[in-house]
Specification:
The chain is of the alpha+beta class and about 150 residues long. It contains three helices and seven strands, in the order H-H-E-E-H-E-E-E-E-E. The strands form two sheets. Strands 5-4-3-6-7 form a five-stranded antiparallel β-sheet. A hairpin with a 5-residue loop joins strand 4 and strand 5.
Length: about 150
């Protein structure tokens, strides 16, 4: 009689696979036995007046009537004052030959494009200027640019 060709390691691997297969079959049968049909009513959730999710429907006596005309759909427009229109900034770059540059707004550190046609007096880099802002074709553009204070560079 010859020696068995199945080594100890092969036996262990086969045992683990069989055990795993049996456990999986057992779990499947348990799920099948415990399966109960869930109705649509069991799946419904309600939201109360505070935004909390609950399983009970709201009380119809506490329902509040809302007039459709009272509902505002749009955002109210902010009224711009004269102080909001005029901003202050530092000229971060300006090319006299090409006739354009950029101003760094002091309030929000945004870079605003400035063209030579919108200057009321000549400017150069590091000048502190006052200007108005409008939306241009490629972003914000400065208008009515005046020197506020000149810094030596």
């Amino acid at each position: 009689m010859g020696k068995s060709q199945e080594s100890y390691n092969k036996k262990e691997v086969r045992k683990k696979k069989d055990k795993k297969r049996k456990d999986k079959e057992k779990k499947r049968l348990e799920r099948k036995e415990n399966e109960n049909s869930t109705s649509f009513d069991d799946m419904i959730a309600y939201v109360d007046e505070y935004g909390n999710i609950s399983s009970t429907p709201p009380d119809p006596d506490e329902k509040e009537e809302v007039n459709a005309e009272d509902i505002e759909v749009s955002v109210s427009k902010k009224e711009e004052s004269e102080d909001d229109k005029i901003r202050k900034g530092v000229v971060s770059f300006f090319n006299d030959d090409k006739g354009f540059g950029f101003i760094r707004d002091m309030e929000n550190n945004q870079s605003v494009f400035v063209h030579a046609n919108n200057l009321e007096e000549p400017i150069k880099e590091n000048n502190i200027v006052t200007f108005e802002v409008e939306s241009g074709p490629r972003g914000l553009a400065a208008l009515n640019v005046k020197i506020f204070r000149q810094e030596d560079s």
